[in-house]
Specification:
The chain is α+β, with helices and mostly antiparallel strands and 554 residues long. Among the domains are: 128 residues, 2-Layer Sandwich (Beta-Lactamase); 89 residues, Beta-Lactamase; 151 residues, Reverse transcriptase/Diguanylate cyclase domain (Alpha-Beta Plaits). It is 51% helix and 19% strand. Helix 1 packs antiparallel against helix 7 and helix 10 packs across helix 11. The structure holds guanosine-5'-triphosphate.
Length: 554
């Protein structure tokens, strides 16, 4: 059986927990959605900014290269006459002159790593370095270059320079717009690193430039790029990001921490720009709020549980006391008194319980009193039901019961009892001459004499009119005879106060001892009546004793 207390506590906790958790989860989901939208917006802004900056930077470098390609030294150096002259003389002077020029330009431009001049077929004519970085021009380069003006090779990692590089090839045109060759300039991409993010306007996060293999070539934070061993991201992640540009996902970032990031694809040059932001920083506030919420909920639940415990305690303890007290009453103990300081329904209930108990005690006292009176009356009634009202001796009914009882005992233990039947001689004469009232007094007087003449274990009953029967328990005929004589002697004179006279009264007494033939009350009474008859017949004022079968009658 689950107690009320535990039910109240469980209900209170659930009633607090369910709405709080429901609202909390809803609110956190909304916050999370908002955070995700903000993160997407910020990451897109970051990637867009970097992309724009990269585009501008490339345009700027294009202009530089284009300007250099119009140099008179280059045009003349590549003119057909000079080329033919140089080949004919097998002179390297022409190449040397170009190299010196390129070296002087290189010194002026900090972001330039290499400057190389190639002929129309792509053959290297001169460079500012001994072994220039191989830039592969496409087979249809001359046409492309003449139409588009330049060819930009996709950015890539250069192990020799330990940096990301970008090469731009611009045609060198003769004065009559004939393509003489090309100037290929390789730039150090680190030049744009500080511009990938605007220190003030850009949202927090990192911008990464990846090569086609997914290696981080450049990052807005230089610390991310490892010149010895370029960091690479999970190819599967890059694949997904490239397939869903502008959509962010969570993955392991270059700093080996969880980041949210999205990709932006640039076509020219072919480059992947990834904007990332630390997952921990994005959700730090959200997680702080969540922890605060969980803490608050825990405290509220503890407080609610404590209040519920207190409340249920205040209900259950008085109830338990009422139950215990009721149990005592059920077992008949009405000495129960409860105290209650509460001024609520339970206090009222306790008060009413005490009133009820008081009332029960009063009722029980009345019942006990009535019961005692009833018992007294019953005892009186019982006495009256077995007593003759005139003499106070047993009445005929009781006599029958006594005789039956004695017969049963005799049958069991074979110890004989004796019966005396007594009749007042000539009582009719007394009655007629003295009156009925005096007659009654004489009957009562004789009864008293009989009572005084027998033992406590013997029974005396009024058989009817002026006749009495005495049962002498466990008494043989010889003792019975003595008792009969004693009674006869005692009753010789009886005082009648009604007429203030003492009369000589004689009694005739028949005596028998129980015999095995006495199988019923009727047989026994018939035999003793016979004995009395014999006493009367033989002259009255005497005892006639029927000797048991072995003896002769007296
Ligand atoms: N006063 C009084 N008389 C009673 C009562 N019951 C019976 N009697 C009278 O008692 C008398 C009994 O008389 P019997 O026993 O028949 O005759 P007896 O005169 O005693 O003569 P024997 O018995 O032959 O000696 C009758 O007159 C009855 O009316 C009683 O309760 N009170």
């Amino acid at each position: 059986m689950r107690s009320i207390k535990s039910k109240i506590i469980v209900f209170s906790i659930l009633a607090t927990l369910i709405p709080s958790l429901g609202l909390g989860i809803l609110s956190f989901q909304q916050n999370e959605t908002m955070i995700n939208e903000n993160v997407t917006r910020e990451l897109r802004a970051l990637a867009n900014y970097a992309s724009r900056e990269l585009e501008l930077w490339i345009k700027e470098q294009n202009l530089t290269v284009r300007e250099l390609a119009t140099s008179k030294i280059l045009i003349e150096g590549l003119s057909k006459d000079n080329q033919a002259q140089a080949r004919k003389n097998k002179l390297k002077v022409q190449r040397k002159g170009l190299e010196l020029y390129l070296q002087s330009v290189h010194k002026r431009l900090e972001t330039v790593l290499e400057l190389t001049v190639v002929d129309v077929e792509g053959g290297i004519l001169a460079s500012n370095v001994e072994s220039p970085f191989p830039v592969k021009l496409s087979p249809d380069w001359p046409q492309d270059a003449s139409i588009q003006g330049e060819v930009v090779a996709p950015p890539q990692w250069n192990a020799d320079y330990a940096t990301a590089v970008l090469s731009i090839a611009v045609p060198i045109l003769s004065v009559d717009d004939f393509i003489l060759g090309a100037l290929i300039v390789t730039f150090d991409l680190r030049d744009i690193q500080s511009n990938l993010k605007d220190k003030i306007k850009s949202p927090p996060g990192d911008v990464l430039l990846l090569d086609k293999d997914g290696n981080v070539m450049l990052a807005s934070d230089a610390a991310i790029v490892n010149p010895e061993n370029p960091v690479s991201l999970d190819p599967a992640v890059i694949e997904r990001l490239r397939n869903n540009p502008g959509e962010y996902e969570i993955f392991q970032g270059p700093r080996q921490e969880k980041v949210a990031g999205l990709a932006y694809m640039s076509e020219k040059p072919l480059i992947t720009i990834i904007a990332t932001r630390s997952h921990q920083l994005i959700y730090a506030f959200w997680e702080q709020q969540r922890n605060l919420f969980v803490g608050l909920i825990s405290i509220i639940i503890l407080v609610v549980a404590a209040i519920a415990f207190q409340m249920s305690h205040a209900i259950v303890v008085p109830l338990r006391r009422l139950i215990d007290a009721t149990g005592k009453i059920v077992q008949g103990d009405l000495n129960v008194e409860l105290t209650s300081m509460q001024r609520n329904e339970l206090g009222q209930l306790t008060q009413m319980f005490n009133q009820m108990t008081n009332q029960l005690r009063l009722d029980q006292a009345k019942i006990e009193e009535a019961s005692a009176a009833m018992q007294q009356k019953n005892a009186l009634l019982e006495t009256l039901s077995v007593t003759d009202s005139l003499t106070g001796l047993f009445n005929r009914n009781k006599l029958n019961a006594i005789i039956n009882d004695q017969l049963a005992r005799y049958e069991r233990n074979k110890r004989p009892f004796s019966v005396l039947m007594i009749d007042v001689d000539h009582f009719k004469t007394l009655n007629d001459s003295l009156g009925h009232v005096a007659g009654d007094e004489i009957i009562a007087g004789i009864a008293r004499k009989i009572s005084q003449s027998i033992r406590n274990v013997d029974f005396a009953a009024r058989f009817g009119g002026d006749e009495f029967i005495i049962i002498l328990a466990d008494t043989a005929i010889s003792e019975a005879l003595k008792t009969a004589e004693r009674i006869r002697a005692h009753a010789a004179s009886v005082h009648c106060s009604t007429i203030s006279k003492t009369f000589k009264v004689t009694l005739s007494i028949g005596v028998i001892q129980s015999e095995p033939e006495d199988t019923s009350l009727t047989i026994l009474l018939s035999r003793v009546d016979g004995a009395l008859y014999e006493a009367k017949r033989s002259g009255r004022d005497r005892v006639y004793c029927v000797q048991p079968k072995s003896d002769s009658a007296t």
